[in-house]
Amino acid sequence: MSTSPFDLTGALALVTGSSRGIGNALAAGLAQAGATVVLHGRDPYALEAQREDFAGRYGEDRIWAVPFDITDESSVVDAMDSIESRIGPLDILVNNAGVQHRVPLVDLALEDWSRVLATNLTAAFLVGREAARHMVQRGHGKIVNIGSVQCDLARPTIGAYTAAKGGLRNLTRAMAAEWAQHGLQVNAVAPGYIHTEMTQPLVDDEAFNAWICGRTPAARWGTVEDLTGPVTWLASPASAFVNGQTIFVDGGMTAVV
Ligand code: NDP
User: Fold this and answer.
1) Separation between Cα atoms, residue 168 and residue 187, nearest integer Å
2) CA R_g for the chain
3) CB of 43 shorter than 6 A to ligand 1
């Protein structure tokens, strides 16, 4: 039996938005640490392809896929109940799914503001609430909310995202305020600028790339692998007395002006 405080063998983890991007890498990190993982997204075909790929790497019995829309309350309630009854008691929730929408505030439609808030903030409350209802009863559980440097800093054209991520930082504190006494640890990881398929055009943009490398003390973009260690730590017994914190994984960007 492992004595490592980072070992997740036997734990069940749900990572929202793990059909691609950062969530997919975070799910792989948790699986590598020994967890059984529930992959998630809305598109059932993309999800099934990832389930098959993960099952090949980590074993058929340790990988599940449950599609649902995190902005729809009844879908969230049904899916979370179904995970608990069909798969097992959830030990780890990573609220990762998110959307971006770039437009100046004066041109921002209420519908787009609401969609960004619903996906990046309200959904973390909804999925977190359903997970915590079970975790609180059992006296343990780990929730990791995925923020961004916009938890703390603004940039033009992403006002709704900034408001949502700032709210997510304080929601993390609110969850810890109520649930820490029941044995839960609730924290957030706030990634800096991460080189992914989605940000490849920004990496290829010479001026933007130079700004990122100049503005970041580590002088480079982050990678999805830079995020798996911190998230796995916050999902593991190694972080048993860490609560309500937002850990910036940004190469030092938010530490300097
Ligand atoms: P992607 O767009 O690559 O992936 C988003 C994931 O969320 C997909 O699996 C998508 O699946 C799912 N999703 C989106 N909306 C919903 C919904 N309503 N219900 C269920 N699932 C949904 O995102 P990233 O990997 O880039 O970002 C992941 C997180 O990291 C976000 O919270 C983002 O804010 C944060 N982040 C990203 C950074 C970056 O550089 N990329 C930097 C800092 C933070 P489907 O479309 O099938 O529903």
Assistant:
1) 10
2) 18
3) yes
Yes or no: domain 12-195+225-249 corresponds to CATH 3.20.20.80: no
Q: How far apart are CA 187 and CA 147, in angstroms?
A: 10
Distance 235 CA to ligand 1 centre (A): 19
The DSSP-derived string for 131-163 is HHHHHHHHT-EEEEEE--GGGT---TT-HHHHH
Q: How far is CA 14 from the centre of its chain?
A: 10
Q: Is the CB of 251 under 6 A from ligand 1?
A: no
Place of tokens 């209420």: 110
Residue 193 a catalytic site member: no
Q: What is the mean pLDDT of each run of 10 residues along the chain (257 residues)?
A: 91 98 98 98 98 98 98 98 98 97 97 98 99 98 98 97 98 99 98 91 95 97 97 98 98 97
